[in-house]
């Protein structure tokens, strides 16, 4: 590795940086073992300057090589120098996300990062077209929204589940968009899911409210949720609240109960991150539902006198309800709730860096736990009753968030 450092250091001393006086040297190693070095070359016309990494890559290409297996950067100053956004993309063109990039001072102080650590969004010709298209659609959707909605940018996004769509009607200063008018947005086809995005304020907090979501049982993929989440991010949201109607696997948490989701089990057989965005697909899910938000939700629920249980939500693709044998199996897996939604959105939100809080409204005891048959109509009517309690809790929550700016 020393040879790579030496080559980068040599280039560092030769760099041409009379304007910034910030010299940078870079060296890349190709799989052949050959090392190509480059220095930054500044120009009075600032954008015409070259970065050291770009120069090293150009030298490699001119030598007929096309792959970087290791990279080193040397720069002076208080902090080690990482490649600029443009050079991260340049490196992504010729290296795997696990490319090791060693950052040095001329005195050989070193830190090693990977390209994936540095690269927020990779561009890759082979399998990222869908990701690109989606990101483009989300940016266009956000632009459409910003163009005709002049209110404050939303701080919290909320996805309303079966029977909860009426919450959006109490939003003040509202602007509404049908999903059909937003590029790339899926069209829900289930009763109780209207397919509208409503922006406005609740208790002074700017929010974006998705009235309706898509489900796998409508023939959509888990990835269809990504656009909703990406649009929220583009609009500036940092927090996502998901709500759903669910069956309960606990007889002590009956119909009408409100449950805070503490974790989930994904039995959908799909993940929204499959395929695109190779550099960032390995998302940590060890705290999918933010513990701080959960603690706050309990605090507010106690203060407001709203009953709030905790539970693990298990997602199945549906659309048929479960068999009693499946429910017994799910109990063994550690599930408290069962439903057909939510999990793709939560994965997409964690991928996007949003904090997530989730609530289930129990509409029925799960299959085999009571005498009656299960129906979607029952889901809708039960959700409407317990939905009022959830509304009360969310209002108090949003009021508190608005108070904290
Ligand atoms: N199973 C799956 N999804 C549901 C249920 C259920 O019992 N109740 C409401 N959504």
Write a compact overview of the structure shown:
The chain contains ten helices and 14 strands. It is α/β, with parallel strands linked by helices and 405 residues long.
What does this structure look like?
The chain is α/β, with parallel strands linked by helices and 405 residues long. The protein folds into two domains: 2-118, Cytidine Deaminase, domain 2; 127-403, Nucleoside phosphorylase domain (Rossmann fold), CATH 3.40.50. It is 32% helix and 23% strand. It contains ten helices and 14 strands. Strands 2-1-3-4-5 form a five-stranded mixed beta sheet. α5 packs across α6.
Write the topology of this structure.
Blueprint: H1 2-14, E1 24-29, E2 35-39, H2 52-62, E3 70-75, H3 85-93, E4 100-104, E5 110-114, H4 115-118, H5 129-148, E6 156-160, E7 172-178, E8 196-202, E9 205-211, H6 226-235, E10 239-248, E11 258-266, H7 291-304, E12 309-315, H8 324-333, E13 337-339, H9 343-351, E14 355-365, H10 376-403
Helix pairs in contact: 5-6, 6-9, 7-10
Can you give keywords for this protein?
single chain; 405 residues; alpha/beta; Cytidine Deaminase, domain 2; Rossmann fold; 5-stranded mixed β-sheet; 5-stranded mixed beta barrel; 32% helix; 23% strand; elongated; binds hypoxanthine
Q: What low-confidence regions span 5 or more consecutive residues with pLDDT below 50?
A: 123-127
CATH superfamily of the largest domain: Nucleoside phosphorylase domain
**Helix/strand structural class:** alpha/beta
Q: If you average the pLDDT, what whole number results?
A: 87
Q: In percent terms, what proportion of residues is strand?
A: 15-25%
What are the distinct ligands in this entry? hypoxanthine
Kindly state the percentage of residues in helix: 25-40%
String of helices and strands? HEEHEHEEHHEEEEHEEHEHEHEH
* Tally of individual domains: 2
The gross shape turns out to be: elongated
- Which fold name corresponds to the CATH topology of the largest domain? Rossmann fold
Oligomer: single chain
